[in-house]
Amino acid sequence: MELKRVPLHQLHTRLGAKIVPFAGFEMPVRYSSDIDEHLAVRNAVGIFDVSHMGEFIVKGPKAIDLLQYATSNNVAKLAIGKAQYSCLPNDKGGIVDDILLYRIAENEYFLVVNASNIEKDWRWLNQNNSFGATLENVSDQMCLFAVQGPKAQLTLQKLTPFNLATLPYYTFVANTSLAGVENILISNTGYTGAGGFEIYVPNNQAESIWNAIMEAGQEYDLKPIGLGARDTLRLEKGFCLYGNDIDDTTSPIEAGLGWITSFEKKFINSEELKQQKEKGTSKKLVGFTMIERGIPRSHYQIFNANAEQIGEVTSGSQSPILNCGIGLGYVKMEYAKPDTEIFIGIRENKVKAMVCKTPFV
Fold this sequence. Notes:
The chain is an alpha+beta fold. The chain contains eight helices and 20 strands. Strand 7 (95-105) and strand 8 form a beta hairpin. The protein starts with a strand and ends in a 5-residue tail after the last strand.
């Protein structure tokens, strides 16, 4: 399959980014070093081009009926101007995708989906749209920039008349101007836990807006950030990555996403998931910290003290903030409590780790 390119591909190449295949796209994985970029976001501000993500519009009087049926969270609780983290459950107990859902207007919603799942999600929503909602795939029409870090607000406030201080976490403004461009959506969401905003911009204005943000952030030492640091930043906060920590075979209950699974309504496979919540599951996604030296990686096996396999690592890395190995993985329920000693199979060794609560930082 031929890899796609984001509209600012040439700009990232000029900035010296290392480009790698990711989710069907050629994407910048780093510009300098993963650690430098990670610390830039935690301590100051960074900008990510995540234009590979997909965007759908769902509208019409029956939009809410489709979304209530196809998503796990309660869309009825979503006021205009608010965003919601949710997932698309499949009919076998797993997750089609995890999504962000924005309520734009009375009968209009905006879905943000993972790049690798754009076609799959589009098919799934249409397949389940017996309600007559209107669906539009606008993924190829817009770019998405994430400006993240404690200096993100100061950086972006220079470019917009909208008072960003009035935008709490998981809210958005749908039609404001940024860097002289009208009708920009700015949301206070993010995948780093460092604070900041995500900005949806038309493709033909993307480069001018990127350059304006780079200039506005110069005094705060804003840096372009690649997917490498994005992964370690989200891992330190215990955020799930689709394809690693959740997928078509993992349920939201097993993944600790019961809080986005609302049984006040009926949705796809809700009865089975409700039973899981009431009766419990055989495995659970947990966070763990390495006690002994070692870096856990996806698919490494997890053992108990008797060298019996009890699970598998789904995400792992060295934490730049904690300066030790951290990870997420599924383990049997009896090993899921915090402070439980486990062992990670790293090469030929079984390296001691401890189950812990997330976020790590």
